[in-house]
Amino acid sequence: MASGMRAQWKGFLKFGEVSCGVALYTAASTSDRITFNTINKATGNRVNRIFIDSETEDPVPKELQTKGFEIDNGQYIIIDPEEVAATIPDSNKTLDIEAFIPCLDVDDLYFDKPYYLTPDKMSGDAFAALRDGMAKSKVAAIARAVLFRRMRTVLIHPHGKGLIAITLNYDYEVRSSKKAFEEMPKIKIQGEMLALAKHIIGTKKGEFDPATFEDRYEAALADLVKAKIEGRSLPKPKKVEVSKPNDLLAALRQSAGMMKAAAEKPKRTAANANAGTGRQPAVRGAASKTASSRSATQRKAG
To answer: Which ranges are annotated Low complexity under compositional bias (predicted)?
Structure first.
């Protein structure tokens, strides 16, 4: 059981004739992001969302709201939530492993959401046997179960002391890449231009470390909120100039020279770089700054 976390789903993980009790916990959360309310500009009051009838324009209370499927323009068949629930297969409490596959066999396009998969108190041995067996064999598992009112396909693989379960998109949900790239011209880069591009890539090689990634959007929002409270404006960002085909080679040469010069300078670690800014994490920093600034504003108003 994960301390301080609420399970999103509890059930059983089955492989062969072995079953173990498991729980799913959300691995990624957006709860720490800065959020905004919708405000009435005229009054400064928060706006509430109300569902109204499209014809009568009368408010519709929650107990009268239901689901519907449009069969014609403005014509619907009503689908009761209980009818939807009745269509769910009986296997809504079992993650049934159907196959073990090489870890890199699934295209990233099919990844949906990640979850931590942990055993209950009685199933540690069975869970560990599956985890370690998969790790030694370097495989992932494909399982199916009803999760969150829908039959889902799940990719499961070892991660530290536990397992990661990633819900997968269905094939019909993934758009064709052919349509996305059909208007791209056929261009073959070679010679000096290709050599410079490879050189720039070589100088920027590194390792994946999510701890070094800053959410610049959240940081910008925090700065904006603070600036609004303090009654000041923020400088406008510089416009990005797109490299023109005729200037591309010159831009590549300039970039290669800049990369070489940067490589010769002492490298700054992510910790040192952040220490120099004095910036707190975007959300928490914004919250504390907002609270202190609001208090100061109220004292002045008083």
So the answer is: 286-296
Lookup: tokens for 80: 């009761």
Question: Looking at residues 247-267, what average pLDDT do you find?
Answer: 68
Average of per-residue pLDDT values in the chain: 79
CA dihedral 287, 292, 297, 301 (to 10 degrees): 120
Please report, for residues 120, 132, 137, 152, 222, the alpha-carbon distance to residue 127 in angstroms, rounded to integers and kept in the order given: 9, 9, 15, 21, 43
SS3 47: coil
Does pLDDT of 296 surpass 60? Answer: no
Digit-coded pLDDT (tens) for 42-96: 999 999 989 999 999 999 999 999 888 998 888 899 888 777 767 766 556 889 8
DSSP states along 68-89: EEEEETTEEEEE-HHHHHHTS-
Q: What is the model's pTM?
A: 0.64
> 159: helix, coil or strand?
strand
Cβ burial 233-261 (10 Å sphere, 16+ → b, else e):
eeeeeeeeeeeeeeeeeeebeebbeebee
Pairing of strands 75-79, 150-159: unpaired
Spell out a b/e string for 192-227, using b for 16 or more CB atoms within 10 Å of the CB, else e: eeeebeeeeeeeeeeeeeeeeeeeeebbebbbebbe
Architecture of domain 9-30+87-173: Beta Barrel (2.40)
State how far the Cα of 286 lies from the Cα of 218, in Å rounded to an integer: 9
8 A C-beta contact, residue 289 and residue 226? yes
- Residue 277 vs residues 57, 150, 230: alpha-carbon distances, Å: 53, 46, 20
Strand, helix or coil for residue 118: strand
CA dihedral sign, ordered 149, 91, 144, 140: positive
| Three-state secondary structure call for residue 110 | helix
